[in-house]
Write a structure and sequence with these properties.
The longest helix is centred in the middle third of the chain and has 26 residues, at 288-313. This protein starts with a helix and ends in a 17-residue tail after the last helix. The chain is 35% helix and 19% strand. The chain has 2 domains: 32-332 and 466-501, Alkaline Phosphatase, subunit A; 338-462, Gyrase A, domain 2. By secondary structure, the chain is of the alpha/beta class. Helix 4 runs parallel beside helix 7 (149-156), helix 11 (243-257) packs parallel to helix 12 (288-313) and helix 13 (349-364) packs across helix 15 (392-403). Strands 1, 2, 5, 6, 7, 10, 11, 19, 20 and 21 form a 10-stranded mixed sheet that branches.
Length: 518
């Protein structure tokens, strides 16, 4: 073959490759990702109230979406803040720094809010929305809407254009100086919305079916309900009621109408948080019909959200994902187990702290070895221990041995034991929930059925370790309907979305993307 023939053949191969590449273009990425986090959503309740739903909310998602039925968190005892941070970052509290809504500050020994002053300063890693911003020189729009400050800020990440939540004081939608303040926020707050009509609001069953449905209660126990919001706590109660979800959807609608989210070639990100817990954080036994009504009303808000986004952009331009925060306030009751001869009691960590300090003083000399406590964690005076030329690990081990002798203690975990990260799956889950900068030096695991009492912080909760399932649902662009029954942890969500958007996963995310997604 001549040189000229070689050149002609090479040119032909290049042309054929170009034609092939043109014919096999990579699929377009979604123009908008809508992340829906439902605080305290449970699979058993979601399924139980299915007869009360319409066809275009939860039923549509479960019918047309890719549904992981058994989603779990990769760390122990999530709350709203730690759950949202994990979903956003693809990392556990051990890496992302958000161990809960509050922890004890070592600077002033006071409880510290995870998003103090409405900023994500304590979130130590990047989030999916941060990486989206980085991928296109900040052109992506990122907004986060939630009833609560911690959920709004953590879901929005560091680089969000806006994070909005409902004020406990006056029920208005607010943000912080960390974010831009759009003119449309002021126009919404001046309009006819829940806060401006709070004294007129009445919560009662949305229809007769809810009042007649009896998943929780027998026929003789059914009671109608009527709640208004007029006391000093009216806005807090509203935020923990079924009616808050309609307010969230109304605000999201206003946000979509007044922004250009999803309207150009750059993918945008919208996070929406709803509430599916019991009324005012009480137990299910206190408000069973209210919880049923909450799920039915939430079903309609999901339908509204899907409809408004699809009407604006079309289904093939939007990727929805829906999941839960993975815990349930209604499970944490203070019921009288003694009445039924169920093993129970009170473990008062404040008194345990005093006894432990006396024990350590007897061993090492008079001093205040423990600085404070929050929840089930004890914070030691590490500097004082070092100044006394004592070995901190030894002091903690002696302390753990002492605490294990107290009634109501199932196990005790020291800083050393947790940071080593060895042991059973349950120990790894506890380690993942721990952070050396924020958490205490000792974590006391209270026995199931016992009530943890902390006099310093006013906390009181009954320990339950019951398994709770919740779904993870993908719906929208390029999603084929499928039911997956194998368990999956939600730290896989962020890298999965990152692959769908063709961007980097968040900085501390080590989980792999879920398979089967385009």
């Amino acid at each position: 073959m001549t040189t000229r023939q070689h050149h002609l053949l090479a040119t032909l191969v290049l042309l054929m490759s170009a034609v092939g590449a043109e014919a096999q273009k990579a699929p377009e990425v979604p123009r908008l990702v809508v992340s829906v986090v439902i605080d305290q959503l449970r699979t058993d309740y979601l399924d139980a109230f299915a007869p009360l739903y319409g066809d275009e909310g939860f039923r549509r998602l479960l019918r047309e979406g890719r549904v992981y039925q058994r989603a779990e968190y990769p760390f122990a005892q999530p709350d709203r803040a730690s759950a949202v941070a994990c979903l956003a970052s693809g990392a556990t509290p051990y890496e992302n720094g958000i161990v809960g809504e509050r922890w004890l500050s070592r600077q002033n020994l006071q409880p510290q809010y995870c998003v103090g002053e409405g900023t994500p300063a304590s979130l130590a890693v990047s989030t999916l929305s941060d990486e989206l911003k980085l991928s296109n020189d900040g052109r992506a729009l990122v907004y986060s809407v939630a009833p609560y400050c911690d959920a709004a800020v953590l879901a929005g990440g560091h680089a969000a254009d806006g994070a909005f939540w409902l004020s406990d004081d006056d029920g208005q939608w607010v943000t912080s100086s960390y974010y831009d303040y759009p003119a449309w926020l002021t126009s919404y707050n001046r309009g006819e919305h829940a806060a401006n009509n709070i004294k007129k609001l009445l919560w009662e069953p949305i229809n007769d079916q809810v009042g007649e449905f009896s998943y929780f209660v027998s026929e003789s126990m059914k009671k109608p309900f009527r709640h208004n919001f007029r006391g000093d706590r009216r806005f807090r109660e509203f935020k923990a009621s079924a009616l808050v979800n309609e307010e969230v959807t109304d605000f999201v609608s206003h946000c979509l109408e007044n922004t250009v989210m999803g309207e150009d070639a750059v993918t945008d990100y919208l996070s929406v948080t709803y509430y599916a817990g019991s009324f005012d954080h009480h137990t299910v036994a206190d408000y069973p019909i209210e919880l049923q009504d909450t799920y039915v009303r939430l079903d309609y808000q999901i339908e509204r959200l899907l409809r408004m986004v699809e009407q604006k952009l079309g289904r093939e331009r939007v990727l929805f994902v829906l999941t839960s925060t993975g815990y349930c306030d209604a499970e944490r009751s203070d019921g009288d187990l003694n009445r039924y001869r169920i093993p129970t009691g009170e473990f008062n960590i404040t008194r345990a702290q005093g006894l432990l300090n006396m024990y350590l003083s007897a061993l090492y000399g008079q001093a205040q070895y423990i600085e404070g406590s929050i929840g089930n964690q004890l914070y030691f005076d590490s500097k004082g221990i070092e100044q006394r030329a004592l070995n901190l690990s030894e002091v903690l081990e002696r302390s753990a041995e002492f605490l294990m002798r107290l009634s109501g203690v199932r196990d005790v975990y020291t800083l050393t034991r947790l940071t080593q990260g060895v042991g059973t799956a349950s120990v790894r889950a506890l380690r993942n929930a721990y952070n050396p900068r924020q958490s205490g030096d000792i974590v006391v695991q209270v026995s199931p059925g016992w009530t943890l009492v902390n006099e310093q912080t006013g906390e009181r909760r009954q320990q339950r370790d019951s398994y709770m399932t919740f779904p993870l649902v993908f719906f929208g662009k390029d999603i084929e309907p499928q039911i997956i029954v194998e368990p999956v942890t939600v730290d896989h969500l962020a890298p999965t979305l990152a692959r769908c958007l063709r961007i980097r996963a968040p900085s501390a995310c080590s989980a792999a993307p879920l398979t089967g997604m385009k």
